[in-house]
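Side project, low priority. Logging it here so it doesn't get lost.
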Amino acid sequence: MAELSIIIPCLNEEKGIVFFLSRLQKLRWHCELILVDGQSNDETVALAKAYVDRCVISEPGRAKQMNAGAEVAQSEILLFLHADTFLPESATVQIQSAIETGYQWGRFDVRLMGQHFLLPIIALLMNARSALTHIVTGDQALFVTRDLFNRVGQFPDIALMEDIALSKQLKSFAKPYRLRHCVETSARRWVELGVIKTVVLMLWCRLQYFFGADPDYLSQLYRRGQFWIR
């Protein structure tokens, strides 16, 4: 049995999927790579099949996709990894060590890849916020034991904020482990939309979520890069 199941939700990632998956190939001797495609309309699946152990087609929606991957995973430890986030070389060893010392879930610190001068500051604040609140975002490569993941009911089936909602459930059972060796995640959306605008939009969406806004509505805001829909 694989020591770790790495579950990768994706949608229309043909431009970068081979480069991303090629970086994970050296882990395949002891890790299971599961790609969960949300019905891409490009060549993502065809390109990825040779680089993963299992390819699952799911209804679109990151929560649905990650839950579908967890359902077929063979390992007792699950790692949820975005298709534009790169693990440090010692990632699997660090995760195993955390679990062996009694932790049931955790995450990595994050570094945003890009040239904008604000990105390191944003990453620093993201890591500090997560350390303080024990709330983990998808870019931070959340890992969890299968037992705890199932105990909290998996990812809630919502269109956005599924990682925050899951973190709230997980931290009610156990404290997360913080791995300080950073994952590196693409800042492409930050740059495309505008770094400052993206920060404000994300804070705005989280504030509305806190006050009970519909995640479907927030997902539309996030996808469109808008603060409201007329």
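Brief comment: The chain has a mean pLDDT of 95.
Revisit when time allows.
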